Amino acid sequence: MNCRFRMASEIFAFLRCKQCVRAADTPVARHADFELRALTEEDGNKEEPSYTWRRNVLIAALLSTITFFVASAYSMVASFFPIEAAEMGSNSITTGVIIGVSPLCLATLSPVIGYFLPKLGTKMILISGQVLVGGAFFLMAFLAYMPSSTSFVVYGILLRVTEGVGWAMSNTTIIALIPVLFPSRVGTLTGLIFGAIGLGYTAGPPLGSILVVAAGYSAPFWIVGGIILCLAPVTFLLLKETSTSSKVLPFQIVIKLLSHLSFSMIQIAGIVGYGSLTFQEAALSVYLLNEIGLNLLEIGIYFAVIAVSYTLITVVAGLLSDKFGPRTLIITGLFICGASLMVLGLNQLPPIPPRWTILISLALVGCGAALAGVPAYSDLLQQAQ
Fold first, then answer.
1. How far is Cα 282 from Cα 218, in angstroms, rounded to an integer?
2. How is this protein positioned relative to the membrane (predicted)?
3. Is the pTM above the cut of 0.85?
4. What confidence tens digit (pLDDT) does each residue in 4-14 have?
5. 231, 102 contact by CB (below 8 A)
């Protein structure tokens, strides 16, 4: 349900874009357009921030950089953190809770932050999100010095919750800023931001493994967390506060969307597709280390394969969705995900060595998740219109 509200909030943000809402002639869209016109008239005398072309390029680069490092911070722990947690006495279930609580906070809080974003201010929320993500990730380096497994788990969950809150704040604000700062380049900037997310997911696991091998367990947290914290003052100096209304659109629009069966089914399909990318993170690295005999660097490469295949197929999935329709690709992607995960669980295909079976399965999981997830977003937008 949390993921459903997060995906619905993205559609809700889409309906708030004035040009996009006016392009749709439906009762929901006309109601949202009426609210937008009222808010625009109320704020008509407010001065919008002016940006030069060079400043826009710098802001686009800044937002992409923030997105990349925040995504890297989330993904890089998959390659080495479960191993460290096992050494500290944490079982796979508890480790899964530590890793999974961050995206849970993202899914839960993104709709809330998006709803109250006009009241709280984009600049303040974005900077606060960076501080929370960078600070929490930096402090995770000290989990290795906890005196007991209980303290390791408790502080690990608290830090990951804090990281998830900051992740929701920064991610939601960046997506909301795109149509405000770049009204004529919404598609280009959206692709750039989602490309940075995919690149961060791709580079995170091998980068984390390299840093651990080179400088120890604490190095990834100190370096990446420090970079995210350093980007906060840059954001303060470069980004101006946008003039937003003190009112928000009725949340009933989101409730109406969620009440449609087809809308909910497509959300579930997207959740299953994206969930296929991450649910094996807590146990797979330990299995690759103990059963397959891989080292940390090789484990990082294995996790990078699933992110690389996902990143590459996202572009193809978008093109195929426009040509063949989203529903066909969603069904195909879910079938690929299910079959690949079954092969990954069996891990015993006689003609193929186990390590190659796992590698191929992970690559196909990434492809299936892209085919199921990207068209799902397009399908939801079509239903919202």
1. 19
2. Multi-pass membrane protein
3. no
4. 445 545 444 44
5. no
